[in-house]
Amino acid sequence: MRATSDILSDGLIHKILSFLSFKEATKMSILSKTWLRAWSTHPNLEFEVDYLNDNMKKVDSIIERYRDEKIPIEKFELSNASFPQEIFPLFDKWLHIALQNGVKNIVFRVPCYTTYTLPVLTILAEKSLRELVLRGFDLKHVTLSSGGVANYNSLKKLSLSSICLDDNMLQTLLNRCSLIVDLVLEHCDGLENIELLNLQRIKSVTIKTFRKQRVKIDAPTLEHLYYLDAGEAYPTLDIINAPNLASLEYIGDQIPKAFVDANLQWNCHPKKVILFATNEMISRFVNRLTSMKRSKPLRNRLQQVTTYKFDWENQIWHLVEFRSGKLALTRDKFYFLLDW
């Protein structure tokens, strides 16, 4: 393996490394001098944290080479497992090198909630940054509202999973990153209200609520919405305005009254709706669609509905006949094509 790998071109080695993590490459025993040289110039740096404990010096030397030779970094990722506080200074050092070398994508996933203090302000201030994916951090004590902080208009995707933050922190962050195109909020603790009101270019939103969180959306450019309800006994989703919404996927046991009775007629007209919920909720939604087809149009009238049911055994969608109140099924997944 080593003899063969050392005669390959750097370009071919880079293509192979695109499919391998540093850990996988080491397991395959292909990290000869040629491979190490190719790895240490590859634009994507992805390391699993549990592996760092045994290879800290090797990883540090590779990242130092990026710094010394000013090698561009496209993506920098640290993820998985736990780690000792002793390596926190190295995280700071590596993030600093990645930012200096024009990193575009940062992915940092840690256990909830780590004591490591993420330098959020420093990361967001980097003009080359396009994507920021975080999991497991406590951001309640981070301050973004100081007058000297600029807007972060270069950021296009923001993903926060199992992050601890409050309403003010989230709103300030969204106001500073108002030009993002893709937003993901998954099971973030400390939030009571999630308001998406001033995102000028937002196209895709994924929200998985955590406990009692109310969601309000006013996003004229929004095209795709994925919403997972935490299972509360009251409506939590309010779509005020989303005229360009093309697809909605809703998972939960409650369809918000405001959404069913008003939003589908006034505020949004999705062409595709996917529901994964109880029989009662599906029946309520079907009945509402039927009444909308018969009612006089307010702005747009629903003309046609095509319904599909997901076959879990064969993993495919089956066309089913649309009949009000006849979908007598337990919790299941349906796909509605709506023609307005």
Describe the structure concisely for a colleague.
By secondary structure, the protein is an alpha/beta fold. The protein is built from ten helices and 16 strands.
Describe this protein's structure.
With 340 residues, the chain is α/β, with parallel strands linked by helices. 29% of the residues lie in helices and 25% in strands. It contains ten helices and 16 strands. The strands form two sheets. It has a 13-stranded mixed beta sheet with strand order 1-2-3-4-5-6-8-10-12-13-16-14-15. A three-stranded parallel beta sheet has the order 7-9-11. Strand 14 and strand 15 form a beta hairpin. Helix 2 crosses helix 4 and helix 5 packs across helix 6. The longest helix is centred in the N-terminal third of the chain and has 20 residues. It is elongated and about 70 Å long.
Number of helical segments with 4 or more residues: 10
Q: Which spans have pLDDT < 50 for at least 5 consecutive residues? A: 1-35
Q: Rough shape?
A: elongated
Q: What characterizes the major β-sheet?
A: 13 strands, mixed
Share of β-strand residues: 25-35%
Strand order of the largest sheet: 1-2-3-4-5-6-8-10-12-13-16-14-15
Order of helices and strands: HHHHEHEHEHEEHEEEEEEEHEHEEE
Helix content: 25-40%
Distance between the termini: 60 Å
Average pLDDT reading: 77
Q: How many E strands?
A: 16
Global Rg: 24 Å
Look at the helices and sheets and give the structural class.
Answer: alpha/beta
Topology:
Elements: H1 2-5, H2 10-17, H3 22-27, H4 33-39, E1 44-48, H5 49-68, E2 75-79, H6 88-100, E3 105-109, H7 120-124, E4 131-135, E5 157-161, H8 167-176, E6 182-186, E7 193-196, E8 204-208, E9 214-218, E10 224-228, E11 237-241, E12 247-251, H9 257-266, E13 272-277, H10 279-294, E14 304-311, E15 316-320, E16 332-339
Parallel strand pairs: 1-2, 2-3, 3-4, 4-5, 5-6, 6-8, 7-9, 8-10, 9-11, 10-12, 12-13
Antiparallel strand pairs: 13-16, 14-15, 14-16
